[in-house]
C-alpha cells in the first residue's frame, strides 16, 4: 500500500497565499491527513495544501487550493490583476471545491466504475461517432473526451456522489467558455439521458429503483454477471427481465437459431414499433435496448452496425446501446477494440487522481469563467 505523502494544511489569508505561491514558508500550518478530522473553514480564507516531501527549493509550493465559490472568485480575479505571472492558478496546482476536498479519504483516488468501464467506453465512442457523423476509424480521441458521456463517466469514476444534472450543467458551462456546442448536443442529450441513467443505476450511482429505467439497470447488472462468469444464457436473461413490456421480446427466444436476414426482420419489427409512436420514455428505452442488442448479434453472432447506423439519424440511442451492450463485460480494455480508440478512451477515463501530481486539466472551470468575465483572456491556456 502506498504511503500517504507528508502534507501540511493552511487556512491562509490573501497575504499568506501571496507568500506561499512565491515559495516563502508561512508559519501556522499543521499536518494534514485525509483520515484526520476535516479542517474547519474560516470565512474569507483559502485552504492551502503543501507537500513537504519536495526539496527545499519547492518546499512551500501549494499543490492544492481549497475554495468555496465566493472566496475563489475573488482569488482568481486578484491574481489575474496583481500577480499575472501565476495566473491561472489552476494551471499549476489543484483547485478543489471544499465539499469535494472534505470527501477525500486518501490523497489518491483510483477511478472505479464498478465493472462497467468497458460499457462506458463504448457509450463514449458511440456519442462521438453520432456527433461527428463518422465511423469509428475516423473519430479522434479529442472528440471522445469532449462528449457528455465522457464527462459523466469520468466524474462517476472519481466522484460518484455528483449527480448527472450537476455534471451536465458543468459540461454546458465549459462548452460556453471555450466553444459553441455542436448543433446536435441538446437533441442528443434528450435521447441519451435514459441510457446514462440506466447505466449509472447499474453502478448504484443514481437511485432509480421504481423509475422507468430500473428494469434496464437491473438487466445490465445481470448481463454483466453472466458474461463475467462465462454463462451463455443472455437471451433467457433478457426475456425474463423484459417479457412483461412487449411481445417483441418473445421473438428473441429463438434468435440463436435464426439466420442473419431473419434477425434483421426482428430488428425491423422492433423499430416499426418505436417509429409508431405513442410510447413513453420507459418503453422507448426498452425497445431501443432490444434493437441495440440485436445489432450486436445480427450477423451470425457478430455485430452488424449498419443496422444501427441506418436509423441513427432519428434514433441515435440504438447505436449507443449497441456500442454499450457489445462492450459490456469486456475484461481487457487495452486491446484493439474500436480501431484502437477504446484503449485511449479508457486511459483518459480511468486515470487516478493524485494530490501530489500536477493537474491534468488546463484550467479550473470557475477560474476560466472569471478570467473571461473580467476580460483577462490572455491568461487562458486555451
Tell me about this structure.
- It is a single chain.
- With 382 residues, the protein is an alpha+beta fold.
- It folds into two domains: 129 residues, no CATH class; 233 residues, no CATH class.
- Helices cover 49% and strands 8% of the residues.
- It has 16 helices and seven strands.
- Strands 2-1-3-4-5 form a five-stranded mixed beta sheet.
- Strand 4, helix 2 and strand 5 form a beta-alpha-beta unit.
- The longest helix is centred in the middle third of the chain and has 19 residues.
- The radius of gyration is 24 Å and the shape is elongated.
- About 1% of the residues have low confidence.
Q: What is the arithmetic mean of pLDDT?
A: 85
Topology, number of strands: 7
Number of helices: 16
Distance between the termini: 38 Å
Strand content is 5-15%
Work out the radius of gyration.
24 Å
Quaternary state of this entry equals: single chain
Q: Uncertain regions: pLDDT < 50 for 5+ in a row?
A: 55-59
Q: Main sheet: which strands, in order across?
A: 2-1-3-4-5
Give the number of domains: 2
Q: Could you say which overall geometry the principal axes of the C-alpha atoms support?
A: elongated
Helix share bin = 40-55%
Q: How would you characterize the largest beta sheet?
A: 5 strands, mixed
- Give, in order, the helices and strands: EHEEEHEHEHHHHHHHHHHHHEH
Structural class determined from secondary elements: alpha+beta
Amino acid at each position: 500500500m502506498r504511503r500517504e505523502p507528508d502534507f501540511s494544511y493552511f487556512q491562509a489569508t490573501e497575504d499568506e497565499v501571496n507568500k506561499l505561491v512565491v515559495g516563502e514558508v508561512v508559519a501556522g500550518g499543521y499536518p494534514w491527513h485525509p483520515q484526520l478530522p476535516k479542517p474547519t473553514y474560516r470565512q474569507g480564507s483559502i485552504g492551502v495544501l503543501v507537500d513537504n516531501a519536495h526539496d527545499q527549493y519547492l518546499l512551500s509550493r501549494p499543490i492544492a487550493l481549497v475554495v468555496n465559490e465566493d472566496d475563489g472568485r475573488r482569488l482568481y480575479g486578484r491574481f489575474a490583476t496583481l500577480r499575472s505571472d501565476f495566473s491561472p492558478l489552476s494551471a499549476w496546482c489543484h483547485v478543489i471545491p471544499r465539499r469535494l476536498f472534505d470527501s477525500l479519504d486518501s490523497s489518491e483516488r483510483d477511478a472505479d466504475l464498478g465493472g462497467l468501464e468497458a460499457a462506458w467506453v463504448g457509450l463514449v465512442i458511440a456519442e462521438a461517432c453520432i456527433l461527428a457523423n463518422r465511423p469509428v476509424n475516423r473519430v479522434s480521441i479529442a472528440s471522445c473526451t469532449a462528449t457528455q458521456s465522457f464527462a459523466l463517466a469520468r466524474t462517476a469514476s472519481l466522484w460518484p456522489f455528483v449527480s448527472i444534472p450537476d455534471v451536465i450543467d458543468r459540461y454546458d458551462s465549459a462548452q460556453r467558455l471555450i466553444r459553441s456546442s455542436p448543433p446536435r448536443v441538446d437533441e442528443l442529450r434528450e435521447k441519451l439521458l435514459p441510457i446514462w441513467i440506466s447505466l449509472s443505476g447499474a453502478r448504484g450511482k443514481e437511485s432509480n429503483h421504481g423509475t422507468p429505467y430500473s428494469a434496464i439497470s437491473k438487466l445490465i447488472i445481470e448481463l454483466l454477471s453472466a458474461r463475467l462468469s462465462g454463462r451463455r444464457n443472455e437471451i433467457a436473461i433478457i426475456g425474463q427481465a423484459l417479457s412483461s413490456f412487449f411481445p417483441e421480446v418473445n421473438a428473441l427466444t429463438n434468435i440463436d437459431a435464426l439466420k442473419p436476414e431473419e434477425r434483421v426482420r426482428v430488428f425491423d419489427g422492433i423499430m416499426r414499433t418505436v417509429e409508431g409512436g405513442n410510447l413513453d420514455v420507459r418503453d422507448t428505452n426498452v425497445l431501443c435496448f432490444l434493437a441495440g442488442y440485436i445489432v450486436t448479434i445480427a450477423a451470425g453472432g457478430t455485430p452488424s452496425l449498419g443496422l444501427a447506423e441506418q436509423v441513427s439519424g432519428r434514433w441515435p440511442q440504438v447505436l449507443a446501446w449497441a456500442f454499450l451492450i457489445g462492450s459490456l463485460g469486456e475484461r481487457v480494455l487495452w486491446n484493439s477494440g474500436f480501431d484502437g480508440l477504446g484503449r485511449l478512451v479508457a486511459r483518459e477515463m480511468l486515470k487516478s487522481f493524485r494530490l501530489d501530481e500536477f493537474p491534468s486539466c488546463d484550467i479550473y472551470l470557475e477560474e476560466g469563467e472569471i478570467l473571461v468575465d473580467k476580460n483577462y483572456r490572455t491568461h487562458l491556456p486555451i
